[in-house]
Amino acid sequence: MINPAPFDRSIPRETLYLGARLAVDVLLLPNRCYRCGGSTAPVAGIWLEHHLLDGYEYGMLEESGGWFLLYDEFSAAAIAEACPDELLAAHGAGPLRWRTTRVCPNGYLANTCLKCTTVIGNWPLREAVAEYQAEHGSLEELERFSSGVMATALEEL
Q1: Which terminus has fewer CB within 10 Å in the chain: N or C?
Q2: Whole-number mean pLDDT of the chain?
């Protein structure tokens, strides 16, 4: 029997605590703002190569030969680390901002429109990603930019 250990290139969990920075692609979903009608590209999630970690441990989806972490209320803080305002703006996306509402008094980190800074809610974004994929859109086709995230940020998931 072959020992599979030498073939496992994922980062061991104990290494994640040492401050490893993981290379990620931030995926953007082109959209129109419901308020101003302007073009914007909210952050749909991040994509990591398979060998970097075991995405199942972090609730990631196996997609396009890697791991996809969908942007939502649980993953937003980890994803935001890879999304400085200047980088988002350079790729047609508005900044990520903290918002509170009557429905969500503790608040959440939300995408915003590049043109008018209107909040693009997490639930409509989740539906837009699901619709995009249902219409045979692939993650490879989405606008993306390279960035990084501290592995320890994923431990919060």
Answers
A1: N
A2: 87
